[in-house]
Amino acid sequence: MVKKIRLLGMVIDNFPLREEVQIGENFYSRMELNIIRTVSMKMFGMAAECQAVRDAIKQADLLVIGDKEILTEAGIYSSQRLKEAVEHGFMQEFLTRMCLGGRSVFLVAPDRLELDLLKDYLRKTYENMRIVGCYALEGPGDGYDAMINEINAAASDAVLSVMESPQEDEFLLKAKAKISAKVWYSMGRQYRITQEHPSFLLRFLQLLHKGKFKNVIHHYENQEEHGDGNE
Fold first, then answer.
1. Strand pairing class (62-65; 104-109)
2. Residue 146, SS3?
3. Contact between 70 and 77 (Cβ < 8 Å)
4. CA atoms in the 13 A half-sphere facing the CB of 176
5. Which of 7, 106, 114, 17 minimizes the C-alpha distance to 57?
6. Whole-angstrom Cα distance, residue 66 to residue 201?
7. Cα–chain-centroid distance for residue 104?
């Protein structure tokens, strides 16, 4: 199995689910913060235009593919891998193991509404999740120092984040060394897609991201073909 794929000049992890989960488990035994990022079509669309997004993808200790189109665009058609991406297998297994292991979590969101949605999802799906704190930002750059202080004071094992690019990317590039948790899991908004009946707006946005993602990839490939590509 191909464990690394290359898109937009970036190397992306493509580990099977069992190996992804084991890598994530190993992070808890390390001293420094380890970043797990869910990479989506939307993120790739931004990466083509924003260096901070590209840098943050490279900074991550584990990349988890969140959309099957990323796999197929890279020539990966394994039915098992596509199923794992569609069903967000890593997210479900990672959160389940957190509950079974009694690990504590701190929640981070870009606003109060998104924080409430995340808390509601976790309470319904992972009843035994130990949530020891949460923080909702009010705007770009607002409350970063206060958020870091609250995360460290809570002494959680992991941070679950639903911040989005490029806000989260710019934050982690500057703040990684200041955070005392063992794992920062950037879930994005993928958890919403696992709901039984995703909203029409959510499905529509996924189609828009898919179109932009394919255009960005094909544009990059054309540049490479004509010798104009940049790393």
1. unpaired
2. helix
3. no
4. 18
5. 7
6. 18
7. 19
Give the residue carrying structure tokens 């690394």.
4
pLDDT tens digits, one per residue of 104-132:
999 999 999 999 999 999 999 999 999 99
* Closest listed residue to residue 23, CA positions, set 57, 60, 58, 61: 61
What is the CB neighbour count within 10 angstroms for residue 203? 10
Containing H/E element for 35?
strand 34-39
From 15-29, 37-51, 153-167, the region with the lowest mean pLDDT: 37-51
**Per-residue pLDDT for 231 more than 50?**
no
At 136, list the tokens: 């909702």
The dihedral built from the CA positions of residue 160, 162, 164 and 168, taken in this order, carries a sign that is negative
Q: Do 151 and 144 touch, CB atoms closer than 8 A?
A: no
pLDDT digits over 158-216, tens only?
999 999 889 999 999 999 999 999 999 999 877 776 554 556 666 656 666 676 777 77
Sequence letter at residue 227: G
Residue with tokens 């957190």: 98
Please give the pLDDT value at position 149.
95
pTM for the model: 0.87
The whole-angstrom separation of Cα 146 and Cα 158 is 17
Is 13 within 8 Å of 62 (Cβ atoms)?
yes
Three-state SS for 142?
coil
